[in-house]
Design brief:
116 residues; alpha+beta; four-stranded antiparallel β-sheet; 6 strands
């Protein structure tokens, strides 16, 4: 399903609230706020994971390998979306990674992100 233009606008808005929920190996949900959540193109969402040892990173990798769904929510004011789907890939090098990391380093110069 294509990402609606209204949702793309929310994802591009720095004032909107963006939330990611993954599950661990036992199915326990873990929810975090992810300001970096964005539309990669008309079909895919992406975000930057700041810490390799984070619970979100571990869960996302497991969800990717096991093809388990994740959920995301984006809202601002009275406009809200919930998105569910399976992780597609982890980007650890190349132009897409560099683009995301440059954005992160502008906001948090001392961080060393682990993937997008």
């Amino acid at each position: 399903m294509k990402i609606p233009l209204e949702l793309r606008g929310l994802l591009e808005d720095p004032e909107s609230i963006k939330v990611l929920t993954t599950t661990d190996k036992d199915g326990v949900p873990h929810t975090v706020f992810k300001a970096s959540l964005t539309a990669l193109d008309d079909d895919f969402l992406a975000y930057v994971e700041l810490f390799e040892s984070s619970r979100s990173q571990k869960n996302m990798l497991q969800n990717l390998w096991l093809k388990k769904p994740v959920a995301m929510a984006v809202c601002k004011g009275r406009l809200a979306y919930q998105i569910t789907g399976e992780p597609y890939r982890l980007v650890i090098e190349g132009p897409l990674r560099d683009k995301f990391f440059q954005q992160v380093w502008k906001l948090i110069p001392e961080v060393n992100p682990c993937g997008g």
